[in-house]
TrEMBL record:
GO MF annotation, one: transferase activity
Residues covered by the Glycosyltransferase 2-like domain: 9-156
Taxonomic source organism: Collinsella intestinalis
Organism ancestry: Bacteria, Bacillati, Actinomycetota, Coriobacteriia, Coriobacteriales
Alphabetically ordered keywords of this record: Transferase
Protein name: Glycosyl transferase family 2
Length: 266
């Protein structure tokens, strides 16, 4: 059985983000006490002040490259069997850890790869619970809420063959079954998608909690919006989809998926 002491939030921080204090506050407001650390490859006085204010330890990646390298560094620095990579501009419902632990503990720990929750969007200070993109992702993820499906490599890969419905900051990783440095380090934007596809080929469960317990902030300066604007994500996603489909089908799926993701490009 996993307990709150078995979990760490790793806040992935980059430069000086205005929302990071609110994110850490939401992590420290959980209904159960868990650990929080901040990981960065861009240490600065702003982040040091944030860490002092919230009494959060900072770890610094001395060899930065792409996002996956930074995530691996923070993930490896966490000393607990469960790790959630918290993005610096998102929000976590107070029951996130409590609900995640309850869902993971319904299974034998040796069977688990990741657990993840549903999410909502935050736009211009407003909570958005429903739009076309969110509804599509919920439909795609629905089979993974069931024991009969969430351990099937076929089901996991077929879901991911239609795009990436898994919200990265909503994912809790089970270190004992994933090992060290599990994130892809070849893609600039789609390293999370590539990582989930890699995991899907492994024996183990993707446990989906169909409750919107993470608020994903959408704004023009976010990494996702910038990379979509530069068409970085579209090219990377095509490569990933081509590992799951013949190239002509992958191109068709990618066109549809890219259109659905346009809502993130502000």
């Amino acid at each position: 059985m996993f307990t709150p002491q078995d979990h760490t939030f790793v806040v992935c921080a980059y430069k000086e983000n205005p929302y990071i204090g609110d994110t850490i506050a939401s992590l420290q407001a959980q209904t159960v006490t868990t650990r929080v650390i901040l990981s960065t490859s861009t240490p600065n006085d702003f982040l040091r002040e944030v860490c002092d204010t919230y009494q959060v330890p900072m770890v610094v990646n001395p060899h930065p490259h792409l996002a996956g390298d930074d995530w691996n560094y923070g993930y490896d620095a966490a000393e607990t069997p469960l790790v959630t990579m918290a993005h610096q501009d998102d929000y976590y419902d107070p029951t996130f850890v409590e609900r995640m632990l309850a869902s993971l503990n319904a299974y034998d720990a040796s069977e688990l790869l990741i657990g993840f929750t549903d999410y909502f969007e935050m736009r211009d200070g407003e909570r958005v619970d429903n739009n076309t993109l969110l509804r599509i992702k919920r439909i795609m993820n629905a089979p993974l809420a069931h024991r009969c499906c969430n351990g099937s490599a076929f089901v996991k890969k077929r879901i991911l063959s239609l795009g990436d419905p898994i919200c990265c900051p909503a994912v809790t990783l089970v270190k004992q079954n994933l090992g060290a440095s599990p994130f892809d380090t070849t893609y600039k934007n789609s390293c999370d998608y590539k990582t989930w596809v890699d995991f899907a080929r492994m024996d183990g469960r993707f446990v989906y909690v169909p409750e919107a317990l993470v608020g994903h902030r959408i704004y023009a300066e976010s990494a996702t919006s910038l990379n979509l604007g530069e068409d970085i994500r579209k090219g990377e996603d095509l490569e990933i989809l081509s590992s799951l489909w013949p190239r002509p089908i992958a191109k068709l799926v990618n066109k549809v998926y890219a259109l659905s993701e346009k809502s993130n490009a502000l």
